[in-house]
Design a protein that fits this description.
Elements lengths: L3 H31 L5 H24 L1
Helix pairs in contact: 1-2
Length: 64
Amino acid sequence: MKKIEQIELDAYRNEIEADMRSLVEKYRKIFDWDIPEIDQLAADKLILLAMHKALDDITTRLAG
């Protein structure tokens, strides 16, 4: 049997993914505004790396 926390997370998984996609798109637009001739693939990689770093930092802080 699943734990209640996992059941709750499963109910919100699609919403979490949609929120993350919105954040990626937010920063893709900002890069486009600042640098019109941007290498989108390179920018996407940088955005995702920054998001991973931020999640790692949050994970560390929450772990106490």
